[in-house]
């Protein structure tokens, strides 16, 4: 995307530095993350491509690179070389890079693998929280759980990419399995007519060239006008007890710092799919029984969960959990921790699952 593709003629982005992210999908469906910084006074942009989804770290790093390139150009190449040769720090370890004749330091600690996005630390979540009303967050969440065709629109690429990335993060522990483009280049706009699910950030300048009849039934969140358009009743299709819980918790804005907002959405998924353990069968090979899963759920959740069985995001989640169990890896991410907390509060029996898991791992 050239700088002009994401901006209209009177857009503030033509006068201010733009920092945004994008995603490249490999042939094996793995994501590579791109982090881009463009100064409108420059004909070029600085871009970092990596498999590491460390948005805040690389955004900070780009600002340091820009500072060195502008004020200490003779150090730029050596600083880049040192950064590359340092490699990726071990989990929990820190990386230090010195510049300006060693008088300044770029320091960061490797992010925890399953750490939930927090306010104000996480830039993507901050933008999403500031530009999207809670009721629209719920609408997008419901649309993603229905695997809809979803478009975000904004004049500013930083807001656009941040909101798309933050919305995607709320799916954790599941992962969006379909077309995922945080910032859509003009030359790729035909993909918006594709019939399959997608989650795409569309710059306002690109969106203005579209004809609505060309893109069909699609969910559209405009981050600038703060409006949500949808031809579906996805929120009404969700269990209303969970929707009410979302609305109540998101309305208490005084309690939203830290990872609270992320945990609100995670808590909904814990109630929906955390009970997958009740359908895990420990035989020679650990398997998942869909019928047992539905039968073990509360009656008010069953109609919605029955539809979720067909979702690629849920199927991939189950496959990954079974793979980890069958290879003896086990897992203890934030989702599992939250499920056990929920199970203890609600009086659900989890000891049997813990014992079965321990016995299986002892056999490996």
UniProtKB/TrEMBL annotation:
Its main location: cytoplasm. It holds the Pfam family dDENN. GO terms for cellular component: clathrin-coated vesicle; cytosol. InterPro entries: cDENN_dom (IPR001194), dDENN_dom (IPR005112), DENN_C (IPR043153), DENND1A/B/C (IPR040032), Tripartite_DENN (IPR037516). One of its GO terms (biological process) is endocytic recycling. Gene3D superfamilies: 3.30.450.200, 3.40.50.11500, 6.10.140.1000. Residues 1-328 form the UDENN domain. SMART domains: dDENN, DENN. It comes from the Eukaryota. One of its GO terms (molecular function) is phosphatidylinositol phosphate binding. This is UDENN domain-containing protein. It comes from Anopheles maculatus.
């Amino acid at each position: 995307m050239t700088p002009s593709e994401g901006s209209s003629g009177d857009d503030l982005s033509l006068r201010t530095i733009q920092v945004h992210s994008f995603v490249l999908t490999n042939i094996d469906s793995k994501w590579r993350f791109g982090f881009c910084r463009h100064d409108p006074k420059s004909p070029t942009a600085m871009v970092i491509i990596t498999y590491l989804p460390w948005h805040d770290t690389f955004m900070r790093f780009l600002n340091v690179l820009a500072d060195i390139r502008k004020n200490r150009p003779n150090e730029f190449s050596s600083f880049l070389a040192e950064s590359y040769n340092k490699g990726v720090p071990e989990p929990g370890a820190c990386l230090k890079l010195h510049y300006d004749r060693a008088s300044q330091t770029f320091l960061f600690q490797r992010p925890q693998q399953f750490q939930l996005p927090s306010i104000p630390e996480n830039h993507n979540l901050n933008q999403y929280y500031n530009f999207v009303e809670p009721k629209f967050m719920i609408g997008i969440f419901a649309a993603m759980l229905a695997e809809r065709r979803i478009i975000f629109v904004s004049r500013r690429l930083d807001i656009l990419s941040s909101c798309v990335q933050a919305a995607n993060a709320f799916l954790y522990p599941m992962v969006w399995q379909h077309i995922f483009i945080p910032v859509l280049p003009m030359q790729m706009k035909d993909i918006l007519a594709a019939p399959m699910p997608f989650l795409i950030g569309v710059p306002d300048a690109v969106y203005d060239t579209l004809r609505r009849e060309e893109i069909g039934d699609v969910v559209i969140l405009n981050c600038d006008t703060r409006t949500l358009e949808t031809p579906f009743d996805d929120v009404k299709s969700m269990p209303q007890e969970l929707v009410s819980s979302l609305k109540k918790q998101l309305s208490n804005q005084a309690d939203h710092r830290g990872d609270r907002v992320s945990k609100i959405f995670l808590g909904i998924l814990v109630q929906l799919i955390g009970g997958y353990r009740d359908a895990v069968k420990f035989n020679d090979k650990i398997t998942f029984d869909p019928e047992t899963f539905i039968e073990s759920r509360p009656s008010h959740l069953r109609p919605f969960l029955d539809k979720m069985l067909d979702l690629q995001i849920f199927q991939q989640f189950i496959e990954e959990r079974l793979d980890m169990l069958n290879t003896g890896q086990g897992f203890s991410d934030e989702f599992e921790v939250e499920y056990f907390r929920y199970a203890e509060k609600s009086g659900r029996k989890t000891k049997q699952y813990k014992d079965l898991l321990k016995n299986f791992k002892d056999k490996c």
